Amino acid sequence: MAIALHYFRSDPPNFGDELNALIWPALIPGLEQSEIDGVLVGIGTILDSSIPQHRNVFVLGSGAGLARLPPGLEDGTLQVLAVRGPLTARLAGLPMELAVTDPALLIRAVYPQLLALRNRAGAGQTLFVPHFTTAKDPGWRRACTRAGIAFVEPSADCVTILKKIASARLVIAEAMHAAIVADALRVPWIPVASTRQFSTFKWVDWALSLQVPFRPTLLPAVSARHAVQRAALNLFAERCLVESVSTDGTESALHSEGVAVLLRETAQRLGMQQSGPLRSFKMKAAAVHQHVIDPLVARLGHVLFRASDAVAEKQVARILSDLAATPGYCSTDEMSTARLHSLQEKVECLRDRLASDLRPGTAREHPGSAGAGTRRKWQRTGRH
After folding, report:
1. Which of 382, 337, 355, 381 is nearest to 106 (CA)?
2. How far apart are alpha carbons 79 and 122 in whole angstroms?
3. In terms of Cα–Cα distance, which of 286, 349, 368, 317 is closest to 148?
4. pTM score
C-alpha cells in the first residue's frame, strides 16, 4: 500500500501542478511506503469528482471551482485538513477555519535558500509566465522581447522556474502558481488573462486567503493563432473569466457583493455542467481544434498573418511594458508567515496521522480507515 499524489498531469507538464512532486515527498517522507492505501490531494484546483473514491483521501490545500465537487465532503469520507481559501470552503460547505491558503506556499519551507536569490536592490528581471494552454504561441516570446521582459515557459524544469522567480523583480502571471510562488518568495506579481480559461474564482479564492488585492489585466490576442484559440474556447469551454470581479485585499472583501455573485454563479455553473452527447461533441470539437486547426493556423501564420501578428505583438508588448513599470502586489510578511505556519501545522498533523495509523497490531480506528464504523471529519485547526 502507499499514499499516491493526486494532481493534474499534462503533456507537456505544467509548473504549478508539478510542484506537488517537489513539495510533498520532501515534507512527508515515506508516502510510497505508507501502510495506508490512500491519496494526497494537494496543489491544484482539484477538489472535484476526479478524486478516487475507494481509498483514504487526505485533502491539504486544494481548491475547487472548475468541476463538480467530490462526494464525501459532507459525511467526512474525505479527510480535509485544509483548502485553498474561503471561497472553496464556502462552496464545499466546510468550516472556514480550514481555509488556509494554497500549499505552494510551502515551497519556502522546502527551498529556504531561494529567498537568498531575491535581489533586494530591485535590479532583477521582470518575468512573464503564461498559462500552459497558451504558452506554445511564439507571439508571447516575441512580445516579451519587444518589451524587454523575460518569457518563462511553464513546462520548463520546475526548479529552474523557481530560481528565475526567486531572483525576479516582478512576475507578470497568467499562470496562477507563478504568482503564488512569487508571493511565497516575497517577489511582487501582477495577474493577467488572455483567454476565458482564466479562472477568476480560483484567483480570488487564493487572494482572499492572503488578504491581497486582485485586479487582473486583460490582454488582447497576441496573434491570429491566439485569436482563433480564443474563439474556439468561446465555443467549447465553460466561461471561467469574470471580468467585473476584483478585490481590494481587505478582510471585508470576502463579504462584498461581487464575491457573493462570483460564488453563487460558480455554484450554479458547476451544478449545470453538461454531460451526455453535447459534452461529448464539445470535447471532440476541442480535440479537432487542438490537433488540426491550431497546427494549420500556426503554419499559415508565417505567411498570411505576419503583418497583423506584428501589430498584435506590439500592442501586447506595450501593455506588458506598462505593467512592468508598476510595483505589483504582494501579501504582507506577517500574513505570509502566519499562513505558512498554519500549513506546516497541517503537514505535521498529516505526518503524525500516517505514522500512527494502520500499523500492524494497531487496534485504534480512525476516520476514513477501512475498519471505521462511523466516518467523521478529521480536522485540526491551526493559526489563521
Report:
1. 337
2. 43
3. 317
4. 0.89
